[in-house]
User: Fold these one by one.
Assistant:
Number 1:
Amino acid sequence: MNVSTASARVPEGWREVNRAMWDERVPVHVAGSFYDLDGFRTRRDDLRDFEKAEVGDVTGKSLLHLQCHIGTDTLSWIHHGAARVVGLDFSAPAVEAARALAADLGHGPERAAFVTGDVYDAAETVPEPSYDIVYTGLGALCWLPDIRRWAETAASLVKPGGFLYLAEFHPFTEALDDATGTRIVRDYFSRGAQVWDEPGTYADQDAVTVNNRSVEWQHTLGDVVSALAAAGLRIEFLHEHDVSLFPRFDNFEVRDGYHRFPEDHPRIPLIYSLKAAKS
């Protein structure tokens, strides 16, 4: 059972708590069926259809993936034609797993580089000063307390004429009941730290784990868009999608490869995506 508390302050040691949680789960993710790394070595693509369509042709472009975890999404962009990808994550075991996967696929560090570092310090950590595309995938922003600092850092890494692409779970879902998603039971505008104590992982709920505490933050859609605009990026689109990658609500069913509400259930946004360009 999830246990959470909300606090207006940023808990001391939050980064270390989260890193310990993620470090422990990397071997579970590498070995498990959720990421299916053996299958990935064959299919070579874990990106969602809407991501590929919205990002467009990446042939010959450089791409930076912030909070890349074990690198499957990062490496997928190479297989769609990116000239060079760089993945950054604060978990050293995750970065080592990503490097090993890249090597298995025949990509050396000149084509696919993975570095360990905090996302807020990315400008001082990644090998190049800027990239054609800065990409952030699903489930990343909730681990960051300061969304404006994130936006400023991400924007600083976009080349002139390039863009940031973000796909993220929609914050509205966090306000709804977990059973049916039909009742508002939590405060959408809550910005305090949420401290969770939960064993296992989304990739294997039965996994035996020790480091089960984590600290997360909720960022409204307005907060994210406003932060990117304030950082000097121009929002080209904001799209909302009625699909998810995991059974967020108890009544979800799988159709067309996505988790969805039943067909007779009112649709709500479950994921959002946006593109923000630099002049």
Note: The CA atoms of residues 42 and 105 lie 9 Å apart.
Number 2:
Amino acid sequence: MDKINLSVTIAVITMFISLFLSFFLVTVKTEHKLSNRLFAFFLILNAIDISVNLGYFFDIPLNARVFISSIFFLQLPAFYLYVLSVCYADFKLKPKHLIHVSTFLIANLILLPRFYTVSLASKISFLKKSSSMLEIQFNHVLVHIQIILYLIAAFMILRKAKKIYLENYAGASMESLNWLFQFTVALSTFYFIALLKNIFKFTEYPDISESLKIGLFLFELIIIFWYLYKALNNPGLFRNIDSRLKLVADIVSEDKNSAQLIDSEKEYNEDLLKLKSYMMEKRPFLNPSLTIQDVSKDLKIPVRDLSVLINHKLEQHFYDFVNTYRIENAMDILRDVTKSKVTVLEILYEVGFNSKSSFNTAFKKHTGNTPTSYRKSL
């Protein structure tokens, strides 16, 4: 009884927080309205799914209860679309995205003949023998296949978006992608635990399943609070990239196939000297939101050619290329005895970073030391 009370209490709290956060995401003024609405939809679906566990408190018809349970089939598609909207600035919902409701429709359609359309007595009999019913077994397998495929798809989108970002941007959106990756890992862990719960549910250890169920509610609550904390403390965190941008590897491959790749050493050297001179004289790296498009516009070099020059010829991501100049500038400041009172935080903002963690990571990658230890070693 205590476990049931604890489970219900945590479920109610999680539902309330999910609905509160979804209301906040829908009403808050932001330029990322679609992303917010998609995540709000994900949270609402999550709250509806949790409500099934409170079914014995309310007189909910069996048809409605089973239908509510099938809402789970919409959760990961909603999350996947959310990932797309965060990663790509020009993402829009289109009719083709209706394909993502197919598993939800299939799961309900196969229940029509022997559950939804039969008498109450037949419904009760069906649920009593649910573990041996072909429809339930099929849906059980289908939902786990869906979980695996959507999580893999989400990780693939994040991997590609990160590569494109590194090749074209030098701002703070990397933190957004890193955080979204962490969030997806947390969500994957959640669904893995849910899988274990379902396995134990049909064994001779149902108590373990019930304990895992309570743990899932707690874990879910922590994940939601984590998102809420990030959203409130980093309102500008979720910036995205242009989906029309291509990976340099794909550009090089296309050019090789079409015999358009220019291997002129003279032209390469000229563009490289022009780029390095521009970086030293104009110091564009001081702009924390610098993109390869900005550099392309100033140098009058096509984005495609500039991207190949930096990412392919120099074998260095644009992100790392720009950060090298930022770190060199930071090192100059740290070596300057007249600026010994300037804090590391002030320095990182001065040289073009807008995040302490990204500055420390880049500095250590470039020098092997943290900014503080580097200053002390001088």
Note: Residues 98 and 339 are 59 Å apart (CA to CA).
Number 3:
Amino acid sequence: MLSTRSGVRALGASDLSAFLELTALDPVVNVFADYRARTTNLEPRWLGGEMWGRFEGGQLVAACHVGANLVPVQAGPDDARAFAERALGRGRTVSTIVGPHAAVEALWEGVAGGWDQPREARWRQPHLEIAGPPQVEPDPRVRRTTRQDMAELYPACVAMYTEEVGISPEHGGGAELYRARVTQLMNRGWSFAAFEGDRLVFKAEVACASPHAAQIQGVWVPPDQRGQGLAAHGMAAVAQVVRAEVAPVVSLYVNEWNEAARRAYARVGFEETARFSTVMF
């Protein structure tokens, strides 16, 4: 149903073409939403939630992914307020609000009075892109992972997630689902790692991809191996393979305070193109 006050309704398969035109306005920043639309056809049963659209004069002008994450798409202040109004009407069902800073800030301001306080808010996360060859030598040890690597890979993924998010992905009985996600990325050829002997010394994954871009997540080096350039040379290898085989532009976003990671990405050739924010519950 379309709200006459906000012009917001849930999108469906018939809206796919218009939605992809919307994400194409900034295809790298919108890669997550683009990927979700292409892989689910905007069908709620496959989305595991909904994709809301806001219309003006019958034209789709903004959207918002509503699943485990609330993700605004091309949302200006009025769009974000409209999405926040709809979100308040259903209560909080998401674990994060994430996306471009201004839209996330406006969304949070709109729902803050009715939702519980976030566990953490990271307001200015540099969004980085690389669209050319890496500027450092790729680590030749980096390769796609296989099921034979799971004994090393899965604990590394848990350690990375716990360090990054502040809570284990296995918390509350989530181990089976998280292991399935790690396996899913592996099966897609989206999981990469470097090994020294049998020990994993670097890892990263492609979180999502479209014909325009791929977004990297889960970059991690064991604490006792940091400061040796493993992240820079590992990311150079990942970016090189992903640009050749998955999508022409590689992106990621990083915490503003993580200066070591930011230096590593800058060495590779990643450049800041936007600022993201993440509000975590």
Note: The mean pLDDT is 95.
Number 4:
Amino acid sequence: MSAPAPAQATPLVSPALGVFAAWSTARLTEVEAALEAALPQQAPAELGAAMRYAVLDGGKRLRPLLVWAAAEAVAGASLGPASHEAARRCACAVELIHAYSLVHDDLPCMDNDVLRRGKPTAHVRFGEATALLAGDALQALAFEQVLGLAQATETAALAARLGLCLAQASGHQGMAGGQAIDLAAVGRQLNLAELEDMHRRKTGALLRASVQMGALAGGADAAALAALTRYGAALGLAFQVIDDVLDVVADSATLGKTAGKDAAADKPTFVSLLGLDGARAYALALQQQAQAALHEGALPAPQTLHALADWVLQRSN
């Protein structure tokens, strides 16, 4: 595409989103309870404590909300028991994968960051070795959540499909591959296509997978899944463009992480390539592309996904 000229999860609410507030709060309550139940109270040494520290203390929970919204978009506002259970497990899984990626990204061998979600990063709090193991364990726990659906014959095929989707978003085709490109790009100026490719993998892949997994949990047909995949791809890239903007214009207290670190590390960003105004215009074009995909899909209940796309552009952290 060519570029156009903190102790608890915070509900994704802004004055412009009105009715979205109650929906977001209800889904976040269920997600927090499910994560609390899934994470171990006891594990060898400080492993359990490090896992819980990385997951339970804050975060926007956008990925779980995308799962819920996509499931409801294809099934209607009310999910049946089996779809609800699948969506709940997927919502936990994508947040656990996201948390693991943050723990590893913050390590000294990666981005070497000391602040995440307004508190010391996991390796600062627990040491590098425990943080590394906590990330590994969170990744395994994510797949345990999804593959738990395989215990029932009627959802075994769905579990396999969901597990494949999550694996592809997490591995060399997705997050891990994007992080490898990111590390190799320090000090280089990428062109727009290269920058898009990096962030469609590093950030966008899991956001897109969250939408896809929710759609599958809700029983999406091929046409709905294709439309929601387009939505997720555009939204995932828009999220990263806004992240690059906020890294420049917001402070660390607002972001809950170190502001200005991309420029300090000489990393290529959408702002460094397009400028602030250009990056904002690019994000708006991607948001409109995402919302157009919802209309193309003729979904029964796309309103919440539409509101989430609005929030991505309006967010302040």
Note: The chain has a mean pLDDT of 89.
